[in-house]
Write a structure and sequence with these properties.
GO terms for molecular function: DNA binding. Pfam families: Phage_integrase. It comes from Thiorhodococcus mannitoliphagus. Belongs to the 'phage' integrase family. Keywords: DNA integration, DNA recombination, DNA-binding. This protein is mainly alpha-helical. It folds into three domains: 51 residues, no CATH class; 78 residues; 161 residues, hpI Integrase, Chain A, CATH 1.10.443. The protein is built from 15 helices and eight strands. The strands form three sheets. A three-stranded antiparallel beta sheet has the order 1-2-3, covered by helices on one side. Strands 4-5-6 form a three-stranded antiparallel beta sheet. The chain has a two-stranded antiparallel sheet with strand order 7-8. A hairpin with a 5-residue loop joins strand 2 and strand 3. Helix 3 packs across helix 5 and helix 7 packs antiparallel against helix 9. The longest helix is centred in the first third of the chain and has 21 residues. It is elongated and about 85 Å long. The chain starts with a strand and ends with a helix.
């Protein structure tokens, strides 16, 4: 039966399936003929599901809602939502079965047409793939998820600073940012963990700090040993703000000095300091790369670096291995002296030498 609700412009359908289940659903259209066609197709689909065991066709919006609920804990959740907002007008009217390789290629082209980098395009497609694969393997809504036609991404070098460059940059920064850089280079903590660090997370007597699971990218607690550089920085900031470790000074209406928590470290002052220091293509996150690079060059084993940095995947640490090839020297030496040295007096026999030798023999 078709009917209209007082609060809706669309036709609604209501009927009872052979097994006694009542179905009430909007047809999504104001046209009565189109609504009748929708009702007929819906009844046929439900009959085939019941009598022939066919799976119901699930729509993209339904899959998105469930996936968002189940992945709310992801560190990249906000980024995923941004990709989903872009995908919505392209996929909201489709069933999961309709999202095939041709559709994915069209999405890729549309994203590229906006001037997005290959990496950004791939991240958007990866969200689609994650949802379709879960629909196939976990929810059993889909027989088979299509493969994703990803774009090539250039391998990026690890960007890090030499110690003299770091000192030059620190000299161009205001006090609070300079000490935040020193602390980052001493601990390897991410920007959000440094700006959000509270005194309740620091024990200067034991020379340790800790990052709670909900603050860590891998959602695991991180214990942070504090070396002398880190302790000296923290000592300087004791008593300035009651809650946060790092704060910046400002004046109130009466001219009194107040300390406010730092919410963003890599802002305008950071960018201006980089320019004055003559350092290009360097992000705040690259301080973490610098910390890791200095560790490896100083002989810290990769498995220890992984624990210090709170990485869950060893592959994330291996990208620093090339910075300290000294541990391979012993193995490289195993084939030394394998080729005999050639005396300096040796010279190639020329055609003139051969002719002269032939004349002498005669």
């Amino acid at each position: 039966m078709l009917y209209r609700r007082s609060n809706s412009r669309h036709w609604w359908v209501r009927f009872t399936t052979p097994d006694g289940k009542e179905v009430r659903r909007s047809t999504g259209t104001q046209d009565k003929k189109a609504a009748e066609e929708y009702e007929a197709k819906l009844k046929q689909a439900l009959w085939r599901q019941e009598r022939m065991g066919e799976k119901p066709q699930r729509g993209w919006p339904e899959a998105v809602v469930r996936w968002v609920e189940e992945t709310a804990h992801k560190a990249s959740h906000d980024d995923d939502l941004a990709h989903l907002r872009w995908l919505d007008p392209h996929l909201k009217t489709l069933t999961l079965e309709q999202i095939d390789r041709d559709r994915l290629r069209a999405l890729r082209s549309a994203r590229q047409a906006e001037g997005m980098s290959n990496a950004t395009v791939n991240r958007t497609l990866a969200v689609v793939h994650a949802i379709l694969r879960r629909a196939e393997r976990v929810w059993e809504w889909l027989e088979r998820a299509p493969t994703i036609p990803l774009l090539p991404e250039p391998k990026q070098r690890v960007r890090w600073l030499r110690r003299e460059e770091a000192e030059r940059l620190i000299g161009e920064l205001p006090e609070h940012l300079a000490d935040m850089v020193r602390f980052s280079l001493a601990t390897g903590l991410r920007e959000a963990n440094v700006t959000g660090l509270e005194w309740s997370q620091v024990d200067l007597e034991r020379r340790v700090a800790w990052i709670h699971p909900d603050q860590a990218k891998a959602k695991r607690a991180i214990g942070v040993p504090l070396n002398s550089d880190a302790v000296l920085v923290l000592r300087r900031w004791e008593g300035r703000h009651t809650e946060r470790v790092f704060a910046y000074p400002r004046r109130d209406a009466n001219g009194d000095l107040l300390w406010s928590p730092v919410s963003k470290a890599g802002g305008r002052a950071w960018r201006k300091a980089l320019k004055r220091a003559g350092i290009e293509q360097f992000r705040w996150h690259d301080l973490r790369h610098t910390w890791a690079s200095w560790h490896v060059q100083s002989g810290t084993p990769l498995h220890v670096l992984q624990e210090l940095g709170g990485w869950s995947d060893f592959a994330m640490v291996r990208k620093y291995a090339h910075l300290a090839p000294e541990h391979l020297a012993e193995h490289a030496a195993r084939i030394e002296s394998g080729i005999r040295s050639v005396p300096h007096s040796f010279r190639h026999t020329t055609s003139a030498d051969k002719k002269k030798a032939a004349t002498h023999d005669a």
